[in-house]
Write a structure and sequence with these properties.
CATH class of the largest domain in chain B: Mainly Alpha
Number of helices of chain B: 13
Shape of chain A: globular
Shape of chain B: globular
Number of helices of chain A: 12
Distance between the termini of chain B: 24 Å
Strand order of the largest sheet of chain A: 1-4-5-8
Structural class of chain A: alpha+beta
Order of helices and strands of chain A: HHHHHEEEEEEEEHHHHHHH
Distance between the termini of chain A: 41 Å
Number of domains of chain A: 3
Number of domains of chain B: 2
Oligomer: heterodimer
Helix content of chain A: 40-55%
Chain lengths: ~400, ~375
């Protein structure tokens, strides 16, 4: 164990920092759940990609820098430290990208990865259906083979970013006789295809961060299928692209939030009557640090040839509950003015940021597999408890 | 940057774990409860034969010259086995403290070096009575005691003090109050040197507790998983119920996020880093939260069985509850973190996880120059 950065790692940090100092927009962008904000964020993805900073762990031929996981952590630290914009294409770069690299054909990779890295094509995820949430094997939407095409009918829901995105990657039932996790395939659909209807769904903050997607005889070429027909479930569940378990939420995000919480606590400290706030602030800070330490430990293990299994479920639970604790504590510190929206007399940008974060934190224990499902995975796969 | 334990560290850990698994059973622990001294003297000899006594003593003083980072995995195994012998406090705290003096330029260095060679040979045992702990565990089996009088460090023969036995809720612990008078001839350090020694001792002691709590918790979790797989109700294992699974999954999560914290703390103490105080306090707080949760949920899933004297679970639970408050309770350690948070010079946030572990502070202007 050596917890010092090497000269190469420090040089890399410096390079990232200098690039970000030069390029991060001074004014914060509008929410990517508005049309204007979406375009601003797409432009930012293009800026990142112009110098291969879009996804540093990707190979150079796909617009990355071939970085290892420690360098990725350093990049993320600098990224959040610089207050750079959120990643509008996270469904693409964090989730689909690694899967595509593992299961895609050469032609598929050259068709999709470059455009994903440059922000030219922004991706939404289409897994959930009205009758298939946590129970994803209950998927009913069908993609039926017709010569060189699939004809798709059905409905997806809770698709994040789908309102303004260009593509959606979905799981459809390609074998109409199949049940549960058999007979499913992983298929890409352009959201402007004929027969696709996108209906925005407003989220807790009033913005259309979700969409419902209806497919009515939508025709896509077989080329848009990732992996073999019927392999959709295995690909969707695959943890082989370990980035998914590790990369979805990097610790830097929570360390910066905890830092802001400490600053808020310092500012309010003399007015605090609730003594348990001191404890809450200390624990938020410690847990954000613990998440960082754990991620460094996991990165080291993966770099030494280890793998990540049910630990990614532990990560999911830990960061999502940490995010809630940080924002709940902030709202307690802000008191009765915490509910204010813009245009109110006492509103400030700081209040708005905490309230936005508080709302968003509520979704953490639900998306990417509810924390209850994660606890089942930990109990059964990590601890070996009986399924039935 | 590399967070992995070395192969040597893993191999040493495995050999100690194998030995403890064979020698320390719930039955043998219960046998100690009824024995006059409460320890297995043969086991203490066996552990010493593995070189443990002087593991942290520099080679120049005749030890193995290993660090806290090497020992911490063994301390975790001592917790897993619920080892009643005070190995962790001996090796990690008392012997290491004596070695610190022996390797210093204090006038007492020679005297400490001589005693250290006797400790190394297994002829005598040394315990540390830090001011933060009201009692010394197993004081009666030690020939020498390191005692605090303010910042002063006194090296005192136990035959020269009065040991007042107390009763612990953990039957494996034999705790004593020490009645003694400081004298000039027993003083081996004072002033800043003394304060530094006590500070290091506290960090090592708290680190040792954190590691043991993690080992104890892992053992409780393992037992709980085993019990709930075997025990059937409503025609199926109780462990197949989600309500039971989720209690134990939460234990696993708390442990996953305490272990890297413990490793970092061991690294910080071993490398004498300026952030050792906070790293150790974090480890103690994280391990303590994990242990409280594992003891609580571990017992819950055992049902009424877990509340009995017959069920072995309480050997581990009571150790968690007892040692959790030693070497500084949660209030003490959280307060050290709180002070750091209020200190305007503290660097925090993304990129500062290892700030004081690195040799230089970093900013782009400096790097660019």
């Amino acid at each position: 164990m050596d917890l010092r950065y090497t000269a190469t790692e420090e040089a890399f940090r410096l390079k990232v920092r200098q690039w970000l100092e030069k390029n991060v927009p001074c004014e914060s962008l509008k929410s990517f759940d508005t049309e204007e904000g979406f375009d601003q964020h797409r432009a930012w993805e293009k800026t990142l990609a112009s110098d291969n900073w879009g996804m540093v762990t990707w190979p150079k031929e796909y617009g990355g820098r071939g970085c290892n996981l420690i360098q990725w952590l350093i990049f993320e630290e600098e990224y959040y430290r610089a207050g750079a914009p959120l990643r509008v294409n996270q469904n693409g770069i964090f989730l689909l990208g690694p899967t595509l690299m593992e299961y895609g054909t050469a032609d598929q990779k050259s068709r999709f990865i470059g455009a994903m890295a440059s922000g030219e094509e922004i991706w939404a995820q289409g897994w959930s259906e009205p009758g298939a949430g946590s129970d994803m094997a209950a998927i009913r939407s069908k993609a039926i083979r017709d010569g060189g095409d699939y004809i798709i009918n059905g409905q997806k829901i809770w698709s994040t970013r789908a309102v303004f995105a260009d593509w959606v990657f979905c799981i459809f039932r390609t074998d109409p006789e199949s049940t549960r996790h058999h007979g499913l395939s992983f298929i890409f659909v352009p959201l402007d295809a004929e027969g696709v209807t996108v209906r925005p769904i407003d989220q807790l903050n009033g913005l259309p961060g979700f969409a419902e997607i209806f497919f009515d005889d939508v025709r896509v070429p077989v080329f848009n299928r990732l992996g073999e027909e019927g392999e959709g479930w295995a690909i969707a569940m695959s943890t082989a692209g370990f980035e998914r378990g590790l990369m979805l939420r990097s610790p830097a995000r929570f360390q910066e939030a905890a830092k802001k919480l400490v600053a808020l606590y310092q500012a309010k400290r003399n007015d605090i009557l609730d003594l348990s706030l001191e404890d809450a602030v200390v624990l938020c800070y410690l847990d954000a640090e613990a998440y960082a330490l754990s991620t460094y430990a996991t990165a080291s293990r993966l770099m030494a040839g280890g793998n990540i299994g049910a630990e990614s479920s532990c990560n999911k639970i830990f960061w999502s509950e940490l995010d809630i604790k940080i924002h709940e504590t902030a709202m307690r510190l802000l008191g009765a003015r915490g509910e204010l929206l813009p245009d109110s007399e006492d509103f400030s940008e700081e209040l708005g940021v905490w309230l936005d974060g508080f709302f968003f934190a509520q979704s953490g224990p639900i998306y990417a597999g509810t924390n209850e499902v994660q606890r089942n995975i930990i109990a059964e796969r990590m601890l070996g408890m009986p399924r039935k | 940057m590399n967070f992995m334990s070395s192969e040597d560290q893993i191999a040493y850990r495995d050999s100690v774990a194998t030995m403890l698994a064979a020698e320390v059973t719930a039955e043998s622990i219960r046998a100690r409860w009824d024995s006059p001294k409460g320890i297995d003297e043969k086991l203490i000899e066996q552990l010493n034969e593995l070189g443990l006594n002087t593991m942290l003593v520099p080679e120049s003083c005749g030890g193995l010259g290993l660090s806290e980072l090497d020992f911490i995995l063994l301390a975790q195994e001592c917790g897993r086995a619920a080892l009643p012998e005070p190995l962790v406090d001996n090796v990690l705290v008392a012997n290491a403290m004596l070695a610190d003096v022996a390797c210093s330029d204090l006038v007492s260095a020679k005297q400490c070096e001589d005693l250290l060679s006797e400790v190394a040979a297994g002829k005598v045992m040394l315990a540390c009575g830090h001011w933060i702990n009201p009692f010394i565990n197993m004081a009666h089996i030690h020939q020498w005691l390191l005692l605090s009088h303010g910042d002063e460090v006194h090296l005192v023969e136990s035959s020269a003090v009065e040991l007042l036995p107390q009763r612990s809720a953990d039957p494996s612990r034999r705790i004593f109050k020490v009645n003694w008078q400081p004298k000039a001839e027993t003083r081996i350090a004072n002033g800043e040197a003394g304060a530094g020694l006590w500070r290091r001792a506290l960090n090592r002691g708290a680190l040792g507790v954190a590691a043991q709590l993690i080992g104890l918790s892992e053992s409780i979790l393992h037992r709980a998983v085993g019990f709930t797989a075997d025990r059937e109700q409503f025609g199926r294992p109780v462990g197949s119920n989600q309500a039971v699974k989720h209690l134990l999954a939460d234990c696993a999560v708390s442990l996953e996020f305490a272990k890297p914290v413990m490793a970092r703390a061991a690294y910080a103490v071993g490398s004498n880093s300026s952030d050792a105080d906070c790293a150790v306090s974090h480890a103690k707080v994280a391990a303590s939260r994990a242990a409280q949760l594992c003891a609580r949920h571990g017992m819950q899933v055992h049902g009424a069985m877990g509340y009995t004297w017959e069920c072995d679970l309480h050997i581990w639970m009571k150790r968690c509850w007892a040692i959790d408050k030693t070497w500084g309770d949660a209030g003490f350690h959280k307060n050290r973190i709180h002070e750091r948070l209020l200190d305007p010079s503290t660097l925090m946030g993304a990129g500062h996880t290892f700030t004081s572990a690195t040799s230089k502070t970093y900013n782009s202007q400096e790097g660019a120059a």
